[in-house]
Amino acid sequence: MAVDLLGGDHAPAVVVDGALRACQADPALHLLLVGPTDAAGELLAALDPADHARVTTLALSNEPDIESGVRAAVLAVAQGAADAVVSAGNTGATVTSAALSLGRWPGVRRPPLAAVLPTESGRLVLLDVGSSVDPDARTLATHARLGAAYAAIVHEVVEPRVGLLTIGTERGKGDRLRREMPRVLSHLALPAGARYAGLVEGNDVVLGAAADVVVTDGFTGNVLLKGLETAYARIGPPGPPEPAVPRAAILLGVDGTVVVCHGAAMSPDVAAGIALAADLHRRAAVAAIEQMINEVSHDE
């Protein structure tokens, strides 16, 4: 896993600690630490000497900028030096670096960030949560497909229900894009037997009974995600107790596994993001999602 040591509001300290936690929790994990050599040295110093072989460092220039770490980490994946990249750095820089260095899938103009939220009914995939803040109808339709495939492949949801986030479930509610999208989504071929389930509101995201995948623009999705995560951190998530959902998002639609943590991520969040990236790679999830999307595209 290529880890951007410079990414995040509290880098490199929390990233180093998060990487250390991930490495200690997963004996099969190998890390490529991208960033200052002194920060990488702190992790090695805290790690059991027997595990030093599982950690490699990629030093940057003497005066690296805050975006150089994620660019180098993504390039390491593109060149085959790493299997996935994890960063809590600038979202725009991460998305741009991934699109340019890894390449986008056919038909994907704006790769979305997909996050998973706990609900009273289980788990829900929310996208986009920060990549495309001003999408058009074609982009949201592509995101609906990507979200449905992600829910089916990674979370084993049978025939995912795809909802469109808006301000009311009555016909004609919302802005121009939201008024246009029901017609587009209702006629869209979706993967994994998914179906368009209609309009959903913010309360439906918490309850989880109306949809398994919720599609929205990156601006609205990011605001909703951060608000809910803060509330859940203070009062607890809805639904029955279950393993914590990683506070990280996967970038869908690029040729590689890219996991983005919040800029305000702390050590446990970084560790969870690294574990998520490792799990996605081991399950070959990105390739499986791409294949499912291609099959739907060919059937049209």
Short characterization:
Helices cover 43% and strands 17% of the residues. With 300 residues, the protein is α/β, with parallel strands linked by helices.
Walk me through the structure.
By secondary structure, this protein is an alpha/beta fold. It has 10 helices and 11 strands. It has helices at 13-25, 37-46, 68-78, 91-101, 137-154, 176-186, 202-207, 218-235, 267-282, 285-299, and strands at 2-4, 31-34, 55-58, 84-87, 113-119, 122-127, 161-165, 195-200, 213-215, 248-251, 257-261. An 11-stranded mixed β-sheet has the order 3-2-1-4-11-10-5-6-9-7-8, with helices on both faces. Helix 5 (137-154) crosses helix 6. The two termini are 36 Å apart.
Features:
single chain; 300 residues; alpha/beta; eleven-stranded mixed beta sheet; 10 helices; 43% helix
Write the layout of secondary structure elements.
Blueprint: E1 2-4, H1 13-25, E2 31-34, H2 37-46, E3 55-58, H3 68-78, E4 84-87, H4 91-101, E5 113-119, E6 122-127, H5 137-154, E7 161-165, H6 176-186, E8 195-200, H7 202-207, E9 213-215, H8 218-235, E10 248-251, E11 257-261, H9 267-282, H10 285-299
Parallel strand pairs: 1-2, 1-4, 2-3, 4-11, 6-9, 7-8, 7-9
Antiparallel strand pairs: 5-6, 5-10, 10-11
Helix pairs in contact: 1-2, 1-9, 3-4, 5-6, 5-10
Rounded to an integer, what's the Rg over CA atoms? 19 Å
Which sequence of SSEs, written as H and E, runs from N to C? EHEHEHEHEEHEHEHEHEEHH
Helix count, DSSP H or I runs of 4 or more residues: 10
Strand order of the largest sheet: 3-2-1-4-11-10-5-6-9-7-8
Broad shape: globular
| β-sheet strand percentage | 15-25%
